[in-house]
Amino acid sequence: MKRFDLPYGRGTISLSLPESRVKAVLESHLHIYHPDQGEEELVRRALEHPEGSPRLSRLAEGKHNVVIIASDHTRPVPSRYIIPAMLREIREGNPEADITILIATGCHRAPTREELIQKFGEEIAEREKIVIHSCEDSEDFVSLGTLPSGGELILNRMAVEADLLCAEGFIEPHFFAGFSGGRKSVLPGVAARKTVLANHCSAFIDSPYARTGIIEGNPIHRDMIYAAKKAGMAFIVNVVINQKKEIIHAVAGDCDLAHQKGVGFLNDWCRTPAVPADIVVSTNGGYPLDQNIYQAVKGMTAAEATVNEGGVIIMAAKSEDGHGGQVFYETFRDEPDVDRMMERFLATPAEETIPDQWQSQIFARVLKRARVVYVSSAPQEMVRDLHMIPAGSMEEALEIADRLLGKPDGSVTVIPDGVSVMVTAPEEGKTEL
Fold first, then answer.
1. Which fold is adopted by the domain 32-269?
2. Is 174 among the catalytic positions?
3. Is 108 labeled as catalytic in the residue annotation?
């Protein structure tokens, strides 16, 4: 038997399989990458050697109103290492700078005080000026014209009117933006809901270029990079983390150039060719990314890329916060026919995109390809409403999958962390290291 201890919530969940059934284990190679410096040193070195930009301390000279866009509680960004280093660098160049940390919630809920302390540490959470972005239309927004897609670019006024705008973040494969990090701090991070909906429209989500690991030709990325430049994003500090959520690589500097360097690192270490199987096991990498079903769609797309048509995906995501999106949940609860649902999405004009439609569209695409057995702590009725089959353990999930396939020996591909790996067609796979 082969045992897998998979990330689940703040711990792990185990799965044991006969070795004869395991067709492949698909994972990034970040777990074998060992940096030559510790986490703080990697961030410091990146700040000292920025890509395509003067140092942050130089940029801060003479700037009074400085805004650092920081990720919210749904992202495992090691802000405890990044933000203090950025604050020191800014104050080295300008001790009198008025610094605001603007939390990029996108369309997510606001983080709690406890979540801010957990993210930044008590000293920063208590002493620094922290403002939480809200995507709802208000006087706190400013229009910057039109995106390449045709949607209106409406951003948080605080970010746009900053004398110096910079951001922290982390870079990982992203299931429709290609990669996270960089320009995403602005759009969707500090954009108005109307702008996010236009960028996440059904036509863009349906594009073959709006996939994990693809930036070239990706219409969603094109809007995002445009928004970041229009906002005046001057500097980023982005990191790559391993399965233990430890920093193993850091980049800093120009929003586009530094991000490209981080993307290059991930391309070297995270691409793996698909190995089709009857059953594919995936996770969302554990806490904080598996707090709800909405976010778990990301890990399902890695399985979607390698599961046989009509096969079964076993998705393990603790989902302590439930579904994670009321409209997302109601979309599936109220429509039993996924094909009809998809037709409705594709017929929806960009300006009429509804909240969470993009996630629903991608989830529907997954469900059209394979049945999903969902291992979580979410209510079973909720899981069924979302067109999935609930399971209380990996053993039960495997039994259900075998029963659905009508055979006890179907092949199994295991993806220990579905959000950290880029599963590609075999000919597009990762080159030898």
1. Rossmann fold (3.40.50)
2. yes
3. yes
